[in-house]
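Hi R.,

As promised on Friday, here is the backbone we talked about, encoded as structure tokens. Could you run it through your design pipeline when you get a chance and send me back a sequence?
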């Protein structure tokens, strides 16, 4: 039992590091898309990360994925390499990073749902109650910020949530046999034949002239959001379970709020902190519930 507890605790810590890295994705994406085409940013960051991945796989001497692993990698790639970056980048053209952060707060519940439905994880009723409460808090916060309405860009954010949940769950399970580094690296490399020509065309069509500030944003989402963060995240999901570690994402919206305030100067007031404390309390309770795997 102690070994299981230690493994789950390690998974939670690794997942938390991954979430901390991902939490700055929206602020830096907004910084980049202010001057660059949003789809170019989304696909271009994957191309940069794929080049790094190819070097890493060569250095590791990683074996080629099996046919079964290739199918899982395809789903992972569609979710986190293409789907989430494209739709979240589009949304960041029209709404503040702080707003996007709260809408993405439903991602933990979506990830848990995918894990439960696809991989037969069996969260207890207590887990589902805490997950629903946490998600209700962040959605309520989004409505409160929007004056009782959701922005048009919320549709893109909801699609981004679905894509990320599929990619997180599929990649997290695959990491149990391949390792988190290989999962995200292969997902990126396998997507290169599609991403590279489209990215080159977008660069030619819309241009790549931008300020150093925009390129700093692009650099972060390329190296950290699209590459390094997944090393921690997928390893955490593999060790601690998709449903349980996925709940750490409930902290991400509020880490993003802080990042948006520091990086972009977006407003952060005491009510934001109260919502953050409420979500942290829900995560702490959910951490103690039972999940059969």
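Update: got your reply. Pasting your designed sequence below so it's all in one thread:
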């Amino acid at each position: 039992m102690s070994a299981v507890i230690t493994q789950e605790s390690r998974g939670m810590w690794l997942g938390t590091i991954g979430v901390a890295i991902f939490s700055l994705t929206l602020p830096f994406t907004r910084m980049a898309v202010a001057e660059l085409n949003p789809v170019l940013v989304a696909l271009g960051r994957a191309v940069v990360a794929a080049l790094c991945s190819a070097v890493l796989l060569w250095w590791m001497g990683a074996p080629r994925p099996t046919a079964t692993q290739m199918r899982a990698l395809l789903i992972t790639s569609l979710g986190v390499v293409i789907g989430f970056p494209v739709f979240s980048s589009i949304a960041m053209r029209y709404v503040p990073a702080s707003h996007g952060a709260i809408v993405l707060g439903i991602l933990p519940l979506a990830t848990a749902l995918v894990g439960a439905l696809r991989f037969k994880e069996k969260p207890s009723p207590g887990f589902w109650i805490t997950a629903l409460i946490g998600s209700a808090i962040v959605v309520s916060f989004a409505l409160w910020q929007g004056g009782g309405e959701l922005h048009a860009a919320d549709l893109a954010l909801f699609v981004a949530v679905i894509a990320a949940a599929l990619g997180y769950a599929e990649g997290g399970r695959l990491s149990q046999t391949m390792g988190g580094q290989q999962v995200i690296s292969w997902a990126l490399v396998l997507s290169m034949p599609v991403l590279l020509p489209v990215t080159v065309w977008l660069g030619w069509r819309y241009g790549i002239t931008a300020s150093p500030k925009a390129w700093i944003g692009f650099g972060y989402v390329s190296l950290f959001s699209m590459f390094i963060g997944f090393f921690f995240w997928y390893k955490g999901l593999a060790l601690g379970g998709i449903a349980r570690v996925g709940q750490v994402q409930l902290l991400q919206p509020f880490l993003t709020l802080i990042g948006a305030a520091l990086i972009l100067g977006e407003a952060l007031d005491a009510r934001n902190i109260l919502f953050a404390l409420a979500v942290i309390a829900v995560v702490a309770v959910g951490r103690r519930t039972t999940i059969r795997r």
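One thing I noticed while checking it: The first helix runs from residue 2 to 22.

Thanks again,
M.
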